[in-house]
Design goal:
The protein has 2 domains: about 5-30 and about 285-375, Aspartate Aminotransferase, domain 1 (Alpha-Beta Complex); about 35-285, Aspartate Aminotransferase, domain 2. It contains 12 helices and 12 strands. It has helices spanning about 5-10, 35-50, 55-70, 85-95, 110-120, 140-145, 170-175, 225-230, 270-285, 285-305, 330-340, 360-375, and strands at about 20, 80, 100-105, 125-130, 150-155, 180-185, 205-210, 220-225, 320-325, 340-345, 345, 350-355. The strands form 3 sheets. Strands 2-8-7-6-5-3-4 form a 7-stranded mixed beta sheet, sandwiched between helices. Strands 9-12-11 form a 3-stranded antiparallel beta sheet, covered by helices on one side. α7 links the parallel β5 (about 150-155) and β6. α4 (about 85-95) runs parallel beside α5 and α10 runs parallel beside α12. The chain is globular, with a radius of gyration of 22 Å.
Length: about 400
Amino acid sequence: MLSDNEVLAIRARFPIFRQAIYLNSCSQGALSDSVEKSMLELLEVWNRQGSPWDLWIEQYEIARKEFAELIGADADEVAIVPSVSAGISSVATALDFSSRKRVLMGEFEFPTMGHVWMAQQRRGANISFLQSEAGRIPAKKYAENINHETAIVPVTGVCFSNGFRSEIEEIVAAAHDKGAYVLLDDYQDCGTRPRDVKSLDLDFYTSGNLKYLLGAAGVAFLYVRRSLIEVLRPAVSGWFAQQSPFDFATQRFEPATSARRFESGTPPIPSIYLGLAGVRLLKEIGLTNVAEHVKRLTKELRRGADELGIAIKTPSDSVGPLTVLKCKNVGAMIDHLGRANVICSSRHDGLRISFHVYNTMDDVKVVLRTLETHLDLLCLETQPAGTMM
Ligand SMILES: Cc1ncc(COP(=O)(O)O)c(C=O)c1O
């Protein structure tokens, strides 16, 4: 476990904490010194060499290896894509909906998940959404609804709007029992705990780098189970998806035998530089350390919010980086937090407070103190148990 001094040393590498308490990693990770340095390195080499594409392609392959290692995959099972939406779309276009038509997902998916699969309706896909019950979608509900018509079950690891953590193992077991694939969208969790796509037995996995992976927009990655790579042929493609892109063979269509076949055009080099630096920083810190630290902070926030009687949208057994509090006036709450130099975000009626390895127990105290002075803006479960600090 990280000591307080170790956490403070990590925090010192993120300049934003000199002026604010940053609790919005669920939207965008804070900028570290090493990520900033990687951008300067890119600019420096670009200035000096003009078109250092050999080096940039090398960095793109290094990034693939690092992203793969992060999730327990091999490099050739990972595609580098410009967004999670692009990665999921590539998978969606590769599926044949003539025998299995159904795509089954929960209402907690990020909107893009609905949109990408609904765009497949004209190719024969039949999309259905599971409704939540009391802030959760139990794996049992998935199991009851997956059948031999189900092609794929896309599922979010952590819900962006209420922090609910899906029961992945059980969902994978239920889907595989009926021969359906599972695609895990781990964008709201990747970077806060160790992940192993193989032990989870996933068919597809995706995350982008701009949130808990501490990078920037423009790069994401997609894991595809090895046995599916050669049988799936995405209907979106491009030269970087080919076996030999540098043959420049316009009239030859020969998709790569690796997961690169799920890519398309020129890789987003600046975002790759930033994404690589973010992942390396997290690996240096250790993802088990990150997970333990985030858990301690989240538990403390929940304890304090419970004491104040605040209605918490995140189920109590979904302890993770994101905790969502139910508000009567979330905009005003965000403004008050902003005046206390606390940066958070909202979705619908929920105030999103997300922790990463750079946050401290003092951050939790400041947030709770600010919430306590504005309880009128929050939905309450019970009467507050009295002043707490
Ligand atoms: C769970 C989840 N999936 C997907 C996305 C969107 O990813 P992209 O914009 O890279 O397509 C987000 C963005 O916030 C997200 O939270």
